[in-house]
User: Fold this.
Amino acid sequence: MSIKTRFQPHLTQQKEQALYRNRALATSPQTARMQINGLNVINFSSNDYLGLANHPKIKQALVHALQTDEISYGAGASHLITGHHLQHHLAEDEIADWLGTERALLFSTGYMANLAILQTLMQSSDTILADKFCHASLLEGAQHSKATLKRYPHLDINALEHRLKNSPKIKGGINLIVTDGVFSMEGDIAPLKQIQTLAKHYQAWVLVDDAHGLGVLGQKGRGCFEHLNLTPDENTILVGTLGKAFGCSGAFVAGSEVLIETLIQFARPYIYTTAMPQLNALAIREALKLVQNAQVSRETLKQNIQQFRKGALQMGLTLLNSQTPIQAIILKQSKTALAWSESLKQQGVWVTAIRPPTVPKNQARLRITLSAEHSQKEIIQLLNALKTCKKVYN
Ligand SMILES: *Cc1c(COP(=O)(O)O)cnc(C)c1O
Assistant:
């Protein structure tokens, strides 16, 4: 059988079900105002919440480092061979200092960090208890680990407790509670205080993937934990990504000395891959300085979120309950979400339609992301464009 014979029917079916993905082509830098597919649009779809992806300070630091000839672009090898450069090392120390954890460890992507944690730390006697709406990489990691995966309904603390109570008591078996900090497609925040209490009571460990909270929430941008006045304890594993509010790429795991050393010794997605470019580690360090001092941007972002929510609710749109830059409008059918998205693009605002399997069936939605870079005027433009959609499609 040829590749074509096997897969052409699948591609055709995706198209018929309005599930086919087309990559939009960006021909400008990543900012709040972009050229995408030849259209000049205001970008309400990226995760660059603080506008750091194109920040002059980061670009200057990169240019300066290259001119002084103190750094190469590529890392040349994995961290365990010759790829672990001073810039990686300093970035890890500075991230750990910022978060108040013993150590931090860089990964090339958040996807790999989550695979590494779940596959390396979980054994066959263990149970992973994951929120139903956890990021795909967490579920992927859990499915490929030796542990049993149980999912609990989104944010449902009682259901989580029920599963903890009934989790098999295998000698030496660990329960690991797994959650996003800020949920990537909903924008709501995990009830970390209750989760910590349950974890203590049932002696479970906790994995929090705060990809969308870090940089955005908390006075110093330390994410959900700071926002909720909590600190990760010794059995907490914190994951952050560096391609979102940090505007770079890559990810890190933060936690105890033993956690980090265990990943360095045993995590295959850490060991068998080339270290991220040295220059990216340098950019991450520059971004971290900006993130720590981004109080003004975080305040602007908060105001942008409030302005958007107020306007959207006034016109009768149904929003999910989210105080974060991720604002979802549920439209149910994939075709409807696509039609709204297409109309918005033609009106100069870029909002992506999110469809299954990224979200559950019949839960297709517009995922609007706000940035500190957006002006009040641009948010009004978004609201007006949504108003037009509502008239045409409701
Ligand atoms: C984006 C994201 C990831 C993946 O991170 P990458 O660095 O993009 O691979 C993991 N977890 C969550 C919650 C995310 O939103």
Notes: The chain has a mean pLDDT of 96. The chain has 15 helices and 13 strands. Residues 109-111, 114, 135, 137, 180, 184, 209, 211-212, 241, 243, 251 surround pyridoxal-5'-phosphate (CB under 6 Å).
